[in-house]
Amino acid sequence: MSANQFPAGFLWGGAVAAHQLEGGWQADGKGISVADVMTAGAYGVPREITKGVLPGKNYPNHEAIDFYSHYKEDVKLFAEMGFKCFRTSIAWTRIFPNGDDANPNEAGLKFYDDLFDECLKYGIEPVITLAHFEMPYHLVEAYGGFANRKCIDFFVKFAVTCFKRYKDKVKYWMTFNEIDNQSSFNNDFLMCTNSGLLLDNELDNEAQMFQAAHYELVASALAVKEGKKINPDFMIGTMINYTPVYPATSNPEDVLLAQRVDQRRNWFSDVQVWGYYPAGIEAYITKKGFRPDITAEDRIVLSEGTVDYVGFSYYQSMSVSSQKVSVDQLTDPHEAQVENPNLKASDWGWPIDPVGLRYSLNLLTDRYHLPLFIVENGLGAVDEVQADGSIHDPYRIDYLRAHIQEVKKAVLEDGVDLMGYTPWGCIDLVSAGTGQMSKRYGFIYVDKDDEGNGTLARSRKDSFYWYQKVIKTNGADLA
Ligand code: BG6
Questions:
Q1: Residue nearest to atom 5 of ligand 1 (CA)
Q2: How many other CB atoms are found less than 10 A from the CB of residue 415?
Q3: Torsion of CA 262, 265, 268, 273, to 10 degrees
Q4: 408 by DSSP, 3-state: which?
Q5: What is the secondary structure of 277-317 as a DSSP string?
């Protein structure tokens, strides 16, 4: 290994989620997921969550980029880039169409057998998220999602079914995607995508969040415990949306507020890594008078089902100011957010902060003492296809280069133990937040627009060749 390269075995790859690329929303017995009842939005226009699938609405995830039929062609392109791993999720509704079915759907299980075989054929390790915003819609309607303790059992049954079936094909797992998104407990959309929760206006949103999140944490811990019995070599991680929090100024009130916001955003992974609730969150729950159903048995499960690594997405940092809200009045951590004048933003208003990624890697290492895995990072941008079919995306290369440079410093100089790096949306797919196709992250362009028109043809962007070189040189050549 040269001093300029990442460690041998570093998992370079790309990341996607089933509902954002597979399509085939009713193929081979698949049931309806929460993603199937979300309409297309736009920047500043929220996606609507409809009561079931309604005629005349545009549901972009129904077809997505039809990876369901194109996966062989797509995996071949990933192999051409040199991927060592491919992160995707297993659509819960392909395996248990309603979520509470007695038996799994064999056709759904077979699809993932075929997909994983296709990856392994090229030496690409599957990295699998079990629940990536894809809860069966039936569990939402009939049970209230993770507001209901019964969903723990449904999730664990799904997890165990997958662990048993794929135990010789998949080593790397994550339970819930961005479990900490729920810290935005006033955001209906995030609460539904993450926990299948349709907020009840009669109840306190934050109290509902603490309850649902607790049940998810128990479900996650039970899945880890069961997974380890099925294959002790499994590596099962948490997956959080890590957003480092900066004080807007060096005013101690801002500094204290930044710490508090961090605690409110990051306690989810504390529980998953440490096996218990951090004292600050226990104290806050008591102070607020919330009485979540947390049993003594749950606490044992949490302590026994801790994770092996910390998977996280990194897109941005956030700055907070006590001018907006004081430490003692803070409830929703996002209400304290202010613009950071030091950073530029993407066309969708996401601050761009490569140094924040190095900072995050160091913070997470100090906090958790576990291997880390950057399982999402990237720039959503509009791409233009030239007359000759080429796609020049220097903005994406610049973004990724700047971030990888910081990752390199963290690994080679700061001693961070990093398992791999999988940029988000390695092939263009449907944006989770807006439902748009035009918010593109990929190295591979897919011919489809926001109205659903296009041939679905795949083509290589300039960034495809750049990333291929990065992988080939194991990160030595980022030019
Ligand atoms: C992460 C999610 O939050 O961000 C992905 O895990 C999502 O599902 C990604 O697609 C980028 O967000 P967006 O809204 O640009 O698709």
A1: 432
A2: 9
A3: -30
A4: helix
A5: --HHHHHHHHHHT------HHHHHHHHHS--SEEEEE----
Answer whether 241 contacts ligand 1 (Cβ < 6 A).
Answer: yes
Distance CA 11, CA 5 (A): 13
Task: Please give the number of the atom of ligand 1 that sits closest to the Cα of 17.
Answer: 8
Q: How far is the CA of 432 from the centre of ligand 1 (A)?
A: 5
Cβ(253)–Cβ(326) under 8 Å?
yes
Give the nearest ligand 1 atom to 433 CA: 14
The single-letter DSSP state of residue 176 is E
CB-based contact 13:470 (threshold 8 Å): no
What are the Cα distances from residue 280, in Å, to 22, 277, 287, 398?
A: 41, 8, 10, 39
436 in contact with ligand 1, CB cutoff 6 A: no
The answer, yes or no, to whether any atom of ligand 1 lies below 6 A from the CB of 46, is: no
- Stretches where the chain sits below pLDDT 70 are 1
Ligand 1 and 19: CB distance under 6 A: no
Distance CA 196, CA 457 (A): 33
- Side-chain-side CA neighbours of 440 within 13 Å: the count stands at 24
Residue written as tokens 């233009």?
384
Ligand 1 centroid vs 178 CA: distance in angstroms?
A: 10
Q: For residue 181, which atom of ligand 1 is closest to its CA?
A: 3
* DSSP helix/strand/coil, 12: strand
Q: What are the tokens at 173?
A: 């797992």
Residue 28 neighbours by CB distance under 10 Å: 13
pLDDT at 201: 87
Q: Whose alpha carbon is nearest atom 4 of ligand 1?
A: 432
Return d(Cα 189, Cα 124) in angstroms, integer. Answer: 33
The predicted pLDDT at position 1 comes to: 56
Instruction: Kindly report, residue by residue over 310-324, the tens digit of the pLDDT.
Output: 999 999 999 999 999
The answer to whether 172 and 125 are in contact (CB under 8 A) is: yes
Catalytic sites, residue numbers: 178, 376
Going along the chain from its start, the domains and CATH numbers come out as 11-472 (3.20.20.80)
**Is the CB of 391 inside a 6 Å radius of any atom of ligand 1?**
no
The 10s digit of each residue's pLDDT in 209-239 is 999 999 999 999 999 999 999 999 999 999 9
432 lines ligand 1 (CB under 6 A): yes
CA–centroid distance, residue 392 to ligand 1 (Å)? 23
